[in-house]
Amino acid sequence: MKLETLEKDCYYHIYNRGINGITIFENDANKLYFLKQLAKYTEHKISVFAYCLMNNHFHLVIRLNIEEKEVTQAFSNLFNSYAKAFNKQTNRTGSLFEKHFKRIRLKDENYLRRLILYVHLNPKHHFDLDFKDFRFSSYQAFFSNKETKIERNEVLNLFGDFENFIFCHNQKNDSLNETYTFE
């Protein structure tokens, strides 16, 4: 499979899972460390619109702020850093993630909105968890005044306003799971 070329100022769905579907986040500390490393390696290089960290995979909705080569290297550094720490913690060796992180270029704002919903609703689709209370999704960042790395205002503008953002998330979105099969 030829990988999508990343381009500056374009939006992407970035995702990957553990090799052979293995767990890549065993606990909350792993997820917090991944988010910390994400911020460290990608600061100013990408804008994050949504994320969700599940036990064996993750989703990011991003926009590139700089040229592809630097962003690809930043992601490589992030994944290598996280894998080394995880392997050391769990006393394992070898690859943690599938070979290349997947990326899909988003073609329009409608796709971007639907993808943000899909990512936020991921806990519901996989584990029938209440996505509103899921700690490792960007959804809760929209209910806080705390500083965040999420492009909160841009996302809310995509949905029109905060009320419509909530409304869209509360709709029966079973068709999202059928439309997007990213794992």
From TrEMBL:
<feature type="domain" description="Transposase IS200-like">
    <location>
        <begin position="7"/>
        <end position="122"/>
    </location>
</feature>
<dbReference type="InterPro" id="IPR002686">
    <property type="entry name" value="Transposase_17"/>
</dbReference>
<protein>
    <recommendedName>
        <fullName>Transposase IS200-like domain-containing protein</fullName>
    </recommendedName>
</protein>
<dbReference type="Pfam" id="PF01797">
    <property type="entry name" value="Y1_Tnp"/>
</dbReference>
<dbReference type="GO" id="GO:0004803">
    <property type="term" value="F:transposase activity"/>
</dbReference>
<dbReference type="GO" id="GO:0006313">
    <property type="term" value="P:DNA transposition"/>
</dbReference>
<dbReference type="GO" id="GO:0003677">
    <property type="term" value="F:DNA binding"/>
</dbReference>
<dbReference type="InterPro" id="IPR036515">
    <property type="entry name" value="Transposase_17_sf"/>
</dbReference>
